[in-house]
Design brief:
The structure is a homodimer of 150-residue chains. Chain A has 150 residues and is mainly alpha-helical. The longest helix of chain A is centred in the N-terminal third of the chain and has 14 residues. Chain A has 6 helices and 2 strands, in the order H-H-H-E-E-H-H-H. In chain A, 41% of the residues lie in helices and 5% in strands. The two termini of chain A are 18 Å apart. A two-stranded antiparallel sheet of chain A has the order 1-2. Chains A and B meet through helix 1, helix 4 and helix 5 of A and helix 1, helix 4 and helix 5 of B. The structure holds a DNA duplex (30 and 30 nucleotides).
DNA sequence: GCGTAACGGGACCTAATCGGTCCTAATAGG
DNA sequence: CCTATTAGGACCGATTAGGTCCCGTTACGC
């Protein structure tokens, strides 16, 4: 039921990796791609989106890279998804795109979607990036946890 | 952020129409399609799915049709979406499909998705079909409400 | 300064799948 | 027995997710 694109998934994984290092640390797109096993160009594209949304800050030139724009506690999963997928709701209705649905005048559910969208968004806004990283610590443990459903 | 397929949307609208009539009333696929402005074959396909999921009961033959299997209060939006889109979570991870993700061993967010999926599902399970129908009553008012975001 | 390492912002492709159509049973009234 | 209806497929076109590539800009460091 209801799916998020894989891109958004990757984005969260990338940011999770960033959140595992000290705040302010810079990560190159290549570095993050390697750690997450995401193809480099894809990771690069995602990081650009995240930078445009203001979730990460970028530094160009040599020794450049990406870093978290704020504390991991201040970034929600909803923020990340919105940065990558755009402010699209569960349905296209009520997302500000007027006239997108040509059967609006006949829709029995008209005006009933907004509360649902908000409920879902609230659920996602309550999950912070800081809660996504493995609590026990760095990458080492990850290998030992194989077998657990991702 | 996060999208539902149009099919699921249509399904909800179809069921909403059913919920606007007295419980036990039978509706033909054509009838519902006409009211919802959904193409007939599509509505038919959706109703089949809903019947297979046990949300509606079907009667074949002349004077047949579809009816709600239980009270509108007992059908949640989550039920409907699951019936049409299948039990897919926000991500493919944690939906029982083992090994779907080949980078599972390296995933920094491993095991962290289940709570999020559950939060979203809970939000949708709290919305009942009975809450979707226009409270003021039958179709007549719908036309008057034009201009409201669907 | 100049070369190189990084990001910025596109265009572009192709594989999946969403949304929709259609056809042939099976079923049940009249 | 005829007709209205659902059951269950096969099938198809258009959209888009997911990924690749290229070229420009920025800035560190030799």
């Amino acid at each position: 039921m209801i799916r998020m694109t894989k891109l958004a998934d990757y984005g969260i994984v990338l940011l999770t990796h960033m959140a595992m290092e000290a705040p302010g640390t810079l990560h190159t797109a290549q570095d993050l791609a390697g750690k997450s096993r995401v193809p480099v160009p894809t990771a690069s594209k995602l990081l650009k989106s995240l930078a445009r949304a203001g979730l990460v800050v970028s530094h160009r030139g040599r020794n450049g890279g990406y870093g978290l724009a704020r504390d991991a506690e201040e970034i929600s999963v909803a923020d990340i998804i919105a940065a990558i997928e755009g402010p699209i709701g569960l349905t296209e209705c009520g997302t500000g795109t007027e006239g997108a649905c040509d059967m609006e005048p006949f829709c029995a559910a008209k005006g009933r979607w907004a509360p649902i969208n908000q409920a879902v968004e609230r659920a996602l806004r309550d999950v912070r990036l800081s809660a996504m990283r493995p609590q026990a610590g760095p990458l080492v443990r990850l290998q030992a946890e194989s077998g657990v459903v991702r």
